[in-house]
Amino acid sequence: MQQRVLDSLHHWFLNPTLLGSPYVLVDTGATPIQGCARKVVDLLNEFDDADDARWVHINAEIVRAVSSSKEYRRMLGIDEQEPSCEPTSTCGIRRVLSAFAKRGRFVVNHPEATRVLTTDPKGFRAAIGSPLAGIEPFHLILNPNCFPPQCLASLIADSYLEWAATSCAA
What we know:
This protein is of the alpha/beta class. The chain has helices spanning 2-13, 36-47, 60-68, 70-75, 90-103, 113-116, 149-165; strands spanning 23-27, 56-59, 106-109, 123-128, 140-142. The protein has one domain: Rossmann fold (3-Layer(aba) Sandwich), CATH 3.40.50. It is built from 7 helices and 5 strands. Strands 2-3-1-4-5 form a 5-stranded parallel beta sheet, sandwiched between helices. It is globular and about 45 Å long.
């Protein structure tokens, strides 16, 4: 499965029309919601009317694989000249997440993403449960006790589409 995702990322890396596109951050906090971010990607690929709306899912495994690969880091435009920042360290992970954000059209659920991508105006941020203390702002905060798990992804995707349609993502 991971290799298939990495293969699809190769096409995503090489698509110049994605540069500067919006993206979605899903913060599930201490309560991981299995498959939620992946389902958001599926919904956005089905319903996003934007040109070339091919969304990809970025999770911790993908971030780790990209961080570990010189080829993928190069494709993301990550400068290798900073010896104090090992590619798979927290610093390296943050650099990969920041580089993903410059491209857009992805949904990410990664513990560091909330810290790194909090202030990026291209990011739509959704939290399921209580977000990290001091991390603001989220566009959407969902109480997982108030919705069936299968509804969470559609609430996030629909909210993102409304946000994007009102030019907030521009």
